Structure prediction request, 439 residues.
Amino acid sequence: MEFVGDVRVRIGFFVWEYPPALVGGLGTYADYITREYVSMGNDVTVFTLNPGNLKTREIVKGVEVHRPLIVDASNVLPMFVTEDLKKWGTNIRMFNDIFIYNVLSATKFINSTIKKEGCNYDVVCVHDWLSSIAGIIAKNETKVPLTFHVHSTEWGRAGGPGSEVVSYLEYATAQKAAKIITVSHAMREDLSRHGWPDAKISVVWNGVDPERYAPNNCKAEEVEAIRARYGVKPDEKMVLFLGRLTWVKGVGNLVQAMPMILEEYPKTKLVILGKGEQQNDIVETASRLGISDKVACKFEFVPEKERILHYAASDVCVFPSTYEPFGIVSLEAMSMGKPLVVGAQGVVGFREQVISSGPDQNGVHVNGGNAADIAWGIKEVLSDSEKAKRWGENGRKRVLQYFTWRKAAEQTLHIYSLLQQSQELGDFRIPDLEKLPTK
Prediction:
């Protein structure tokens, strides 16, 4: 896809997480892509959540950021919302924050930036259901075309139907949007299977900053300090997992794979970085298997600089997800020149990033739901250090060719520019709840 270089756009960008309030991959995406848009001469106005301690309006690296202050209505919402939402229990506060953020952001976007300040936006983009309410309101109140960026879905995250309210918001926004952009072909196929309008869906891969994620940027003493922190000796291999510690990431199966790996490669240590509901299970599983001394965990969100050092310190990076629409962590590891073992069954975008055979191979595909298969993949990398090094080099070459933020921005802006030029944006109505697909 070729970007029409002389077209510039003003973007209303709605995303739940944005620096410095980062939670996961969506925030990383939003941080990098908005700065890339601005560096290419476009105007970006971000509307995001305010945890209560941030400015309500500021310019961050050329990006205008609005963070409306929210209030707690969580004890009011259950009075008039659906039974499904009442089941959220204490999580109703999360829905409260999302709902209030959406309404206040949409109000500020329409009444302040458009009507009062006279800003003319070319596109409104909303990211996942977390900002879909604002997108629907903006579509109802303005003529600005709406683009729905889908990074994951409720049925995928939940491993089943999940929340009826969230599923409805996702499907309703898909119908209302002029365009849907998702992160992988695997994800596009999944959306189509669930009855989403296929003709609207385009795929744009995410990216990484290869100048920041570069092996040569890391000092040897800092890398060695990371290995020493986890007790990884010079003659040992460090296997790295980084991500949210939730069941779809396959980290539990990775821990169960370790005894099979240690049988052949006893000088191996698994380092796990991240937070999530599986923290206790990871510790208990390692203890039950008698490998606690071979599994080191850091249960916290790691800043980017430290994350880069962890990649540099590792010998192989493993991401055995069973649901991963894209997965930026694999790109980060590839950019750092590391061989990969990735889950490739189910709705997983890793298989579009990692080449598993041939002269351009940069890793191994495994079934993330099978501990034995994960063990096999890791042993494939550990069996030949020269081969592993070559795979790492191939991975960085692939990043430079296909997976930079500039390429992601160019392709997304091309889609936005086509919306600008279109005279038939459509008037998609929100479907009735009872018509929501169940398969």
Observations:
- Confidence is low (pLDDT under 50) at residues 1-5, 423-439.
- Residues 215-402 form a domain with the Rossmann fold fold (CATH 3.40.50.2000).
- The chain has two domains: 10-207+405-435, 215-402.
- The longest strand covers residues 237-242.
